[in-house]
Write a structure and sequence with these properties.
Layout lengths: L4 E5 L23 H12 L3 E6 L4 H12 L4 E6 L27 H6 L9 E5 L2 E2 L2 H13 L7 E8 L10 E9 L2 E13 L4 E3 L8 E2 L5 E9 L3 H15 L13 H9 L4 E7 L4 E2 L6 H13 L10
Parallel strand pairs: 1-2, 1-4, 2-3, 6-12
Antiparallel strand pairs: 4-11, 5-13, 6-11, 7-8, 7-11, 8-9, 9-10
Length: 311
């Protein structure tokens, strides 16, 4: 049986945060959010880590994260670059980077970059989100129940929306419809805010707002996939390059959610929803950092984590 791999998306530009939030310490030991995620993942059973980063942050990232973690687990790197494109699409259309494009191609493209670094089932997380120990235990168990590369039985950890909001602005979440424990529909909402009533979202860049149930289940990009998913990502990215880039050459993105939803709709894949009641926290904005540091301290005081994770 192939051991599950943990894939960590750390190539985001951090534009709303204003810097390299992936390597910004959240405690007085210099530890960052990724440290706590990996600590939880190793306790759950993961042994191999693949970081998705950009070449331009490689030196800083390895000095701040990778070199330290390579002493406790198998650490690998793949690079998500804007010019990492196929030469042509399936129809023969030549692929090139639009003039002025600097934004990465999105979460779907990020995972596709890992195709040659992952040889079995794998979990996916963001680098700047805290998920909690329970989440990693559940996703590891799901991945080891069926480690077949060809299976289309996937999984995700779902969170209660109210537990994933920040006081400091809007967040992007995949809002889920769940039936009998399985994902039926997931819709990307790129602007969700906390309100007095609970939560609201905007589909027109903040011009108008609509209430949304704060008890909704949302995706925080903690997924469990099999090797089979890479074939679907390749198909989806090919279609994206064919149809979407010309419409918005500088900002169009190939989201991970798209291929997942298409597979569910077609009845080709199932996604088991593993619910978590843990409270999310992360550093979407610089103003979030103090709250994250306080939350980490509280977890240490409760004994959830030692003061120095890797001592």
């Amino acid at each position: 049986m192939k051991q599950p791999t943990l894939v960590i998306m750390a190539a985001g530009m951090g534009s709303r945060y204003g810097g390299l939030k992936q390597i910004d310490p959240v405690d007085d030991k210099g530890q960052i959010i990724i440290d706590f995620s990996i600590y939880d993942a190793l306790r759950a059973g993961f042994k191999k880590i693949v970081f998705i980063i950009k070449k331009e942050i490689e030196k800083d990232f390895k000095e701040s994260v990778g070199n330290r973690l390579s002493k406790v687990c198998d650490v690998n790197y793949v690079y998500q670059e804007v010019d990492k494109l196929p030469k042509t699409t399936s129809s023969g259309k030549v692929c090139s980077v639009p003039e002025g494009r600097v934004k990465p191609w999105g979460t779907g493209h990020a995972i596709l970059c890992c195709k040659d670094a992952v040889d079995g089932p794998f979990a996916v997380i963001n680098s700047d989100d805290y998920y909690g120990p329970e989440a990693f235990k559940k996703i590891y168990e799901a991945l080891t129940e069926d480690a077949s590369n060809d299976s289309y039985d996937y999984s995700m950890v779902g969170y209660v929306l109210s537990n994933t909001l920040t006081e400091n602005g809007s967040v992007s979440r995949g809002v889920c419809s769940v039936e009998n424990g399985y994902l039926k529909k997931i819709e990307e909402k790129t602007k969700i805010i906390k309100t007095e009533k609970g939560a609201a979202f905007s589909d027109d860049n903040g011009e108008t707002w609509k209430d949304i149930d704060a008890g909704s289940i949302v995706s925080m990009n903690l997924w469990g996939f099999k090797k089979s998913f890479f074939k679907e990502l390749e198909k989806g990215f090919d279609e994206f390059l064919e149809t979407q880039v010309e419409k918005n050459p500088l900002k169009s993105e190939f989201y991970l959610l798209g291929p997942v939803q298409e597979l569910i709709t077609a009845g080709k894949a199932s996604v088991k929803v593993l619910k978590s009641t843990d409270k999310w926290f992360g550093v979407t904005y610089k103003e979030d950092k103090e709250a994250v540091m306080n939350a980490i301290k509280a977890l240490k005081d409760k004994g959830v984590y030692p003061d120095d994770l890797w001592k």
